[in-house]
Amino acid sequence: MNSRRNAKAWAQLGLRGMAMGAADLVPGVSGGTVAFIAGIYEELLDTLGGLGFGTFIHLFKEGPVATWKKYNLGFLAALVVGIGLSVLLLAGALHHLLEHHPVLLWAFFFGLVAASIPFMLRDIPRSAFKGPVLVLLFAGAGIAWWLTGLPPLMQGNHPAFLFGSGAIAICAMILPGISGSFILVILGAYSSVIGALKSFDVLRIVAFASGALVGLLGFSKGLGWVFRRHRELAMALLSGFLIGSLRKLWPWKENLEPLFAHSDGRVEYLQINISPQVHGDPQWLLAVVSMAAGALLVTGLGALSRRSTSQTPDVVPTTSHE
């Protein structure tokens, strides 16, 4: 979908990209969830799905300006800039919070994702909550619950390994409820990717980004096709993913046994979820406040989405490409 946006709308789009980037940095939260709540998910799928070999042919025949407009590349550019800024500015901070304040960080994202579930479910008509829709809702929850219970693997940092990890993880990153970062944890690539971003290891960053680009262009076409033809079923499955992902985001965990040590000395443990009362966590009240802050952020994003789509001066549709 091509759109002519004013400066305010472009700025808001960049901020949504930053929110997506921040979410994708945390194992357990999907940037696709943020994109959906922010009201740009289907435009994202349509734009990505429209890219391919034909884009290059159009570029050589019609030139960069016509190609930029036809394929809605301004939309992608604003998101990429926002995501890139978020990664550059927040990778170190989020890494620090995961190490030193994990309960408060997980609580924030638990509230964010939990509050996102009603936004997803309300997109399905009440009359559709039967048969296949219910099956896919429970199936999505079961799949995400199982995935988020898998132990992380030993890390690897070879460029070829990071290329493959990027191609796999990007598919999860654009699915609401399935965290691409957590897939990287399971694959054993998360620490390597975060470390490469922190140290600006160009070779490994390019390898990961190239794999992500290949996976993104291929997967988005299929997902866009499903959304256009089976929207209610797709929404049910994705809502289930969100519900099941709450297992990973539960803030209070207990270490059962060490799995392996990272290069910086941190130990990765096999964990289970516990009640905050088991060890008398003194942070439980702060964690509840953090959950509420995450939920309020989702509510604000949802309100911003509804407001921006209802204000025609901000976004003026133009002729869409075939």
Question: What does this protein structure show overall?
Answer:
The strands form two sheets. The protein has a two-stranded antiparallel ribbon with strand order 1-4. Strands 2-3 form a two-stranded antiparallel ribbon. The protein has helices at residues 7-25, 31-37, 41-49, 53-62, 64-70, 73-100, 102-121, 132-147, 159-173, 180-187, 190-199, 202-229, 231-249, 284-310, and strands spanning 3-5, 253-261, 267-273, 315-317. The longest helix has 28 residues, at 73-100. It has one domain (3-309). Strand 2 (253-261) and strand 3 form a beta hairpin. It has 322 residues and is mainly alpha-helical. The chain contains 14 helices and four strands. It is globular, with a radius of gyration of 20 Å.
TL;DR?
Helix content is 69%, strand content 7%.
- The succession of helices and strands, N to C, reads EHHHHHHHHHHHHHEEHE
**Termini gap:** 9 Å
* Rg estimate, integer Å: 20 Å
Beta content: 5-15%
Molecular shape? globular
Number of domains: 1
The side-by-side strand order for the widest beta sheet comes to 1-4
Helix coverage percent of residues?
55-70%
Number of strands: 4
Average of pLDDT: 80
Number of helices: 14
Structural class determined from secondary elements: mainly alpha
For the biggest sheet, the summary is:
2 strands, antiparallel
Unreliable sequence segments: 312-322
